[in-house]
Design brief:
disordered N terminus, mainly alpha, 481 residues, two-stranded antiparallel sheet
Length: 481
Amino acid sequence: MKTSMVFFMSNVFFFTDAFQLHETSSREVRTFLNLKRPTLVANSAPDDDYRSRKKNVQSSLSAFSIQGYEERDYLEFPNLLRIDFDSLKAVLTTSLMISGGTIGASALVLPEFVAKPGMAISLGIFGAVYIVNLLSGLVIAEVAIKQKEQNGDEVPSSFKEFAETNLDSPSAACIISAISLFTNTCVFAFDLNRAGDITSQISGGAIDQSFCLICFAFSLVILRSTQTGEKISNVSSIAVITLLISFFGLLLPGLHEVQNPLDVLLTPGTSSEMMSGISEAAPILLTTAIYQNIIPSVTKILKYDRLKTVAAISIGSFIPICLFIAWSYACLGGGITEEVGCDGWLYTTFSIAAIIGSSIGCTMSITEELDSFISGSNESSDNSKTLNPLVSLIAVGVPSAAALVFAGGDDFSVALRLGGSYGSPFLYGVIPVAMAWMQRQKVEGARDLVPGGFKPLAVMGMASSLFMLQELAADASTFIL
C-alpha cells in the first residue's frame, strides 16, 4: 500500500513538472497528452532543474525502482476507459436479434391471459419465465461453446440438428422431431385461426371466417412451393419490420393513455381461483417468450465468446419481457384498443404482420421436418431450392384442418397453450439438460457457462418435468369433468 502511494505521488510530481518545463513546445505538449501506455517517453531533453529534482525523488525511494525514467520524459496515462466498440456492437445487434424474433402472434392474446390471474401476479410469472428461459438459453449456449472447443467444427444452426448431434441417439432424434412438429403445428393452427378471424373482421363479416382461413392457407402452400428460401426470408423480414414498427406505434401512445396505473396493477384476476388463473396464463407466457431455438446461431455470430454470449442472451431475453409487460399493462389499462378494421388500422397492421411472420416461420420449420422424413435428406434447408408441393400441402393442411374444427371458437388459444404446456418445456427444458449432463460427464476441465455443477441442471430438469405433469393433471381433470 505504501509503495503504491509513493508510485502515485511520483507520477503526479512528474506530471506537474512536465507542464512547467519552459522549453517544451506546443507540439510536445500534444504528444504528452496523446497517451496510450503507462510509460514515460522521451520527446525532448529535460532541463538541469528537472534532472536534479527527479534525482532527489529517485534517491528517496529505497523500495521502489524507477529504472528507465532517465531516458523517458513524459508519463503516458493508461487508457482505463478503452471500449471495444466492435464487441459492443456485436452484443447489441445479437440481443436485438433475439428480442425481434420473440415478438409474434401470441402477443395478440397475451393481455387476455394476463388478466386471468391479474396484472400483479402476472408480473411474478413474467419474472419466473425470464429466469427459466435465461437458464435454458445459457445451458444451450454452454453445450454449443464446448462442442466447438472440443471438436473445432461449427455447430448446426438448426436446434433440432444441434440436439441430435449432441445426444448422438437415433431414437432421441425421432423424439425431438416429433415434439418439434407437435409444437410448431399447435402454434401454426393458432396463427391460421387468427388469420381467418381477422380477415373476416376486416371485411365486416361479409366473408366467412372459414373461407378466409382456407385462402390464407392456400397462399402459404403456393408461396412455399414456388419460391426459394431466400425469397421467402425476404418476405418474412418485411413482415418482422412492419410488426416492430406497428408494435411500438401502438405501445408508446398506449402507455401514455392509461389513466389509472395503480388500478391496473391492483385489479383482481378474472379467474375465480388464483391457481387456476396462473395455470392458464403460465403456458401462454412461456410460449410467447421462447427464443432458445436460435441460441446455436447466436453463439456462432459471437464466435463462441462466453462473456459476449451471456450478455447477449441476458439482454436479448430481458427486453421482450419488459415489452410484454408494458403491452399487457397498456391493453388492460385501456390505452390500446384491440380493434380490427379501418378505425383500428394500426392494430390491424400489427395483427396481420404478426400472423404472416409467425406463419411463415412455422411453415418453414414443419416442411423441413416433413421433408427429412419423406426424402431422408435435408434438401429443404437449401435456401436456393423450392420444395415439393406435396410436402407443403401436408405441412399446411394438417394445421388448417385443426384450425377449421375450432374456427369461430373463442378458446382456440388452447392450441397455443398445448404447445406451451408440453412442447416448449420438453424441447427447451428437458433436452438442454440432457445434452449438458452428457457433455459434462464426457468433457472434464472445461469451464461451465452455468456455474454450480450439476445442481442447476437437476433443478431445471425437475422444474420442466413437474410443470408438464402439473399441466397434464389439469388437462386430465378438465377432460374427465
